[in-house]
Amino acid sequence: MCESVPVNQDWEERVAAAWAGLDARTEDEGAAFRAVIDGLVAELPDGSPLGPFERACAFDSTGHSDRAVPLYREALARGLDGYRGRRARIQLASSLRNIGRADEGVALLTPELDGFSDELDDAVRACLALCLSSLGRDREGLSLVLGALAPHLPRYQRSMANYARMLVEPAPRGDARTP
Q: What is the mean pLDDT of the chain?
């Protein structure tokens, strides 16, 4: 599993610094950034799931979703789990949507709605909503986004949560559909 892969704080800080300095407005800048990430990945033990994950992120962030998809899949197949594993699934779903395979993104993220909860819950819902919208399922996507937004509102949390639910639940006979 990824969490047991020995990566020291120095490596983590250098990866974070590379990401903080990302400025890939041109293909040459994107290639230079990916080379920095490749250099950091070369320091990892063979078979580490962090390597393909970081490389996938770099391709994704420089406009190459098509090249990121197989790397995200490889990272997950190698056992990337925990927080980074969840990030990989979110980012993979987004990349799949970008290359016209939103249905695979929906299949990947739907189980995340019932999994453990963390700070990425809203990102799961937002990405899943985009995938659903790409498939013409806008009401379902809007329901997810409203449901994710409702707890953050200073008022109207109950109403927005009910509206979100009503977008996808069939209306009972004689129901005026007001929360």
A: 92
